[in-house]
Amino acid sequence: MSDRSERSGDWGPDTALTTGIIADDLTGGVLVAASLIDQGIPCPVVTEPAGVDDHCNAAACVVAGQFRLKPAQEAVRWFDEAQKALSEKGAKHIIYKYCATFDSTDNGNIGPCADALMRHTAADRLGFCPAFPPRGVTIYQGHIFLGSELLCNSSKRFDPITPMPDPDLVAVLQRQTEQKVALVSHHILTQGVEKTRCFIDQAHRQGATCFFFDAIDENDVATCADVTRGWPAMTGGDTLLATLPALQTGERRAVADLPSLPPGNTAIIAGSCAGATLRQLERFEERHPVMRLKLNDAADDFSAVLESAVTWAREELSQGPIAVSIADQPESVERIQSRFGVDNARMLGERLCSELAAQLLKLDVNRFIVAGGETSGAVAKTLGLLAMSVYPHPDVPGGLCVSEPDQRLCCYFKAGKMGDETIFHDLVRMFRRTSDDS
C-alpha cells in the first residue's frame, strides 16, 4: 500500500486542466479515467459539476453523471453545468463519453447533448466514434456490429429501456439533431489522416457539421483521434476517449499504488439483471451469503423490505463479505416492468439499492462493490462520493475508486455486463489488501 500523499489524480498543488470529459454514467467514466491513469495521465473523477473547481486539479478530469436515461431537456441542463464548470477551470478540450453501443432511442439525449457541446465550445464540427473494437463493438458503413452480427440482431433490439432496432447510427443520430450528419467511412480512413481531413473539409463546405466515424479496428480509432486532434470538442466511447486526451497533453506520471484504508466490512450491491452479473452472484454465493430482494415486495412495503435486508446484513457481516441483489431473471423483470412501467421499476430499484448502501455504511461497510451503471450512480450519490481517485488493476476492468480527499471509502463500480465470473471473489481479495492492519 502507498503513502496517503500519493494519488492517481493530483490532490495537492494545482495542475492545469487541459481535457475535460463528461460521461453519461459513472461506470463508463471510471473506465475512461482508469485507462488514462494507466497511460500516466492523472485523471480524477467527480460526480457533480460542483466538484470540478476543487477537485479537477490534473491534466484531465472526468465528470461522471447519471443522465444516460434522462429526458433530453434534463440531460442537457446537467451537461451544460458540467461543461461550464470545466471551461471555467481551464479545459481547452471537452469530450462527451457515451456507451459504445450508442444506446439511444429517437427521443434520446445523445444528439441534444452533442448540440449543446457545439454551442458551448463554438465548434464548427463535431466527431462521433463510439466503437469499442477490443470488445467486438465495431462500425462499418455507419452500421454498428456486435461481433459479426448487426446490433439489431442481438438482444439490444429488444432492450426494455433503449431498444436498438436500427443499426444505422448515422440515421439514429440524424433523427436526434438538426445538424447535418456525414459518414467518415472506413475506406476514407484507410487513406490516411490528411486525406480524411480533406474529405471532412469538403463535407463541411457542403453543410455537414457532425461526422460519424467508421471503426472496424483500433487503427481506425487511432486515425480518428489523429484527424480530430486539436478540435475543441469530440464525442465517443471508451477506445477513442482513452486515446484522444493522450494526444492533447504531454504530462505523464507513474501510476500510484492503492492507499491503505481503515478496517471495515465489504458488501456487494447488485442492481443489474445482466446475465454476467447473475452468473457472478452465483459464483460468489459458493463461498459467501447472498440475499435476493424482490421489487414487487418493495413496492408493497418498501420499509419492511429494507429493514429485513439490514437485519440480515447486520448478522452476516460479522462472518465476512455479503451480497444483496435486486437482480432477477428476464421473465420476472418483464412482469415487474409490466406492473409499474419501465422507468418506475428502474427508479424503485435504484432507490432500494441506494438506501441500502446508506444503511450498510452505518454497519461499518466501507468497501462497496456495485453492479449496474444506473445503480452505481445512485449509490455513489447516496454515499456522498463527490470526488474519487481511480486505481487501475490488471485483474479487473477499470479500477478501484477511493473517496477523496478523506479516503474513507473504497468502491468498485461495475457495468452489468462486464467482468469474469470470478470478479466478485477477485475484488474481495483486493479489498483485503487495502486495510491499514493487513
Characterization of this structure:
There is one protein chain. With 438 residues, the protein is of the alpha/beta class. The protein has two domains: 19-247, Putative sugar-binding, N-terminal domain (Rossmann fold, 3-Layer(aba) Sandwich); 265-432, 3-Layer(aba) Sandwich (Molybdenum Cofactor Biosythetic Enzyme, Chain A), CATH 3.40.980.20. The protein has helices at residues 26-38, 52-55, 72-89, 110-121, 169-174, 186-189, 193-205, 218-227, 238-241, 244-247, 275-285, 295-300, 302-316, 330-340, 342-362, 373-382, 423-432; strands at 19-23, 45-46, 60-64, 93-97, 126-129, 137-140, 143-146, 149-150, 180-184, 208-213, 233-236, 265-270, 290-292, 322-325, 365-371, 387-392, 399-403, 410-414. The strands form two sheets. A 15-stranded mixed β-sheet has the order 9-10-5-11-4-1-3-2-16-17-18-15-12-14-13, with helices on both faces. Strands 6-7-8 form a three-stranded antiparallel β-sheet, with no helix packed on it. 52% of the residues are buried. Residues 1-7 have low confidence and may be disordered.
